[in-house]
Structure formats: C-alpha cells, structure tokens
Amino acid sequence: MSDRFQRIQMLAGTGRLDLAERDLRQMLAEEPRDGLAHAFLAMVLISDESRWDEAMREAKTAIGVEPDMAITHYALALCYLARNRYAEAEASVIESLRLDPYDPDAHATLSRAHLGRSNYAEALAAAEQGLAVDPEHTECGNLRSIMLERLGRGEEAIASSRANLARDPDNAMSHAAHGWTLLNNGRHQEAQVAFREALRLDPHDEMARQGLIRAMNNRSFVFRLIHRFYVAMSRLNSRAAFGLIFGAWVLMQVLSSVAGRVPILAPLIFPLLVVYVLFVVLTWIANPLFNTVLRFHPFGQHLLSRTERWASNLMAPALALAVFGLAWGWWMDSFMLGVLAGAYWIGVAIMVAAAFSMPTGQRRLLVGGAGVLVACVPIYGVVQSVLAPSFDPLFGSFQAYGYSLLAIQIGSQFVAAQPVRR
C-alpha cells in the first residue's frame, strides 16, 4: 500500500475524516478508476448517516473497477451492515473472504452480520476464524465474548472478555462487552463498574449506556427476575420462545377451567393465575417502569434518553391512576368497578410500553395509534352501559379490551423484531 493510503488510514483512524476524504477525492481526480480509493472513500463516508447513499455508490463503483479486490467487497459489506441489511452484508463479506481469507476485519464483519440475524453459533465461528488469523484482534475478541454469552456459556464469556481487557484496557467496546457478560450472568454490581469505565472512555457508547441502565435496574430483586427471564428467552430461538410462552398460556387456561369445574381447587389455582398475570404484565412494562424509578437516582437520571423519559412520563400517571382506581373501588365498596378501573389504566401502561419499545418513530406512531383506538373500547362500553342501562356492554367492552391488548402486545413484538433497514 502506498504512502498516500497509509496517510489516509492514519487520518481516518484518528477521526480526521474530512482530511481523509479530501485526500481521497484528490486521488480520484488524478485517477478516477482507482478502485482502492473508491473503497476507502466509501468506508470514510459510512461514518456520516446522511451520506450512506453516497457511500454505497462509491463501494459499488469500487467493485465495478476492481471486482477481484477483496477490500471493495468488504467496503460494500460495511455499507450494508450500517443499514442493517444483514443478508446482503453477509453475501458481500463472504465474497471478500473468498478473495482474501486472511483478513480478520472481514471475519469480524461476517460475525456482525450473523449477530444481526441472531445466528449466534455462526457469529461465534466467524469471530474465532478471525482470531485464528490474528489472536489479538480486539473486535473479533469482543464478538467472541458476546457470542459465548448469547449461547449461554457464561463463564467462558467472562474469561474471554477479561482476556480482551488485558490486551486492550483502553477499548470502550471491550469494557461494554465485559459488562454485558457479567450482567447476563447475574453479576450486576461488577457490570456497573465495567459499563461506567466504557462510558468514561466513550461517553457516546450506546451499548454501554443501555447496559448501565439495566445493571442499575438490577438492584431491584423484581427486575432481576424479569431480566433473567429476558436473558433466558433471548437465548432461545424464536420457535422455542414462542412455544414456551404459548405453552404457559395454555396451562393457565387449563388451570382456570379446572378451577371452574372443581371449586375445591380454586383457592389453590387462583393465586397461581394471579402470579402468572402479574409476571406477564411485568415483563411487558418492566423497562419503562424501572426507568421511572431510575429518574430519582442522582446518576441514573442522566442515563435516560429523551424517548425513555417520555415513556416514563406517560407510564407513571397510568400506573398511578390504576392504583387510584383500585383504591376508589375499595372505598366505594364496589370491588368490580375498582378492578375494571385499575385494569383499564394498567392496559394503558402496557400500550405505552409497547409503543415506546419500537426502534423507530414511525413504528412508535403505528403502535401508539393502535393503542389509542384500543383505549377507546372501554369508554364506548361505559357510554353504552349508561344509555342501556345495563352492565353487559361494559363487561363486553372490557373483554374486547383484554383481547385487543394481547393482540397489540403480540403485534408490537413482531414489528419490533423486524430489522430496521436504513
């Protein structure tokens, strides 16, 4: 590689991307068919989200000029990866590795593409192939730690992340990866230290910010239970996770039926049903609920993003009104109306959590809009009951409300799971 490219690599590596771009454009003015320069320019432009289209064009031009040069396909893979187009990124980086199988950066990119599609075993294999080429490659080492944790090999993951930190103690991603391996293995206090160090090295590290929020929320025993459930479910494939949830739901339906037919068993079954429902609701609202508590922490309050604060702003009043509704029903000696009022506002809290768990503003509007319509169902039931007058429309509307909440939750999970193609 010429001195000019070495200088460009140095400029890009130290964050002086404007100077790197200037040099590359000067090179392309002298030789427009320089495939290596086009590939480097694509990789420089990727750092600016508003110029991703331009970066993609440069990468494709590079391949057009130098189709047998590995780095041109590698640059295109990075462009696809930035846009969460994992299948296309995988195809491009595999072509790059076919031309140059000894590039650890390309192996790391392949690992990331597999990770984006939740193919953890394949992602681990790619990271280990990169480490076989360069045993001290930081990104491959960090990805290996993350994949080991995803595959449930907790102690190996922690040992791997400690080894990465020993090699590169000033790498923010190494500290963040170490934090997640600790957190997902039940060591939330040590995880906080790792995430704080990652944020000290890189205050904009989103992986460390999210990790520190989870680690601080893990101070609560209830949240720790929920977090363990999240971790266990995230390690299952989608079919197994759905089967487990559906199986639990069917079991609760059977127990409910048994309680109706054998009244003597009702006192034993009813507490199980209540615990099941409370646990399910908590898994839906745990993050915004405990983020609300975090807002009273002198350090934790600064970790939340604007979106997370809005979720908290809407969640807290909904839950407060649920408690008020239950208390009002008890005070008025009308248990059923109190339960209905409490259930309504808990339902609103569930819909707030579902809307703000969406990864984009457009999806938040979609789920939020559906939530507003669902929230109107019980209000319609109240009006019909007053006009009738009869309680039947009210009870019927709350039954529809419950099924609609379940539909919104399932639908929002499906929508949230779809990759954000940018």
UniProtKB/TrEMBL annotation:
It holds the Pfam family TPR_16. It comes from Rubripirellula lacrimiformis. The keyword Aminoacyl-tRNA synthetase does not apply. GO terms for molecular function: mannosyltransferase activity. TPR repeats lie at residues 70-103, 104-137, 172-205. The keyword Transmembrane helix applies. PANTHER family: PROTEIN O-MANNOSYL-TRANSFERASE TMTC4 (PTHR44227:SF3), PTHR44227. This is Tetratricopeptide repeat protein. The chain crosses the membrane at residues 240-262, 268-290, 310-331, 337-358, 365-388, 400-417. Keywords: Membrane, Repeat, TPR repeat, Transmembrane, Transmembrane helix. InterPro entries: O-mannosyl-transferase_TMTC (IPR052346), TPR-like_helical_dom_sf (IPR011990), TPR_rpt (IPR019734). One of its GO terms (biological process) is protein O-linked glycosylation via mannose. Gene3D superfamilies: 1.25.40.1040, Tetratricopeptide repeat domain (1.25.40.10). It comes from the Bacteria.
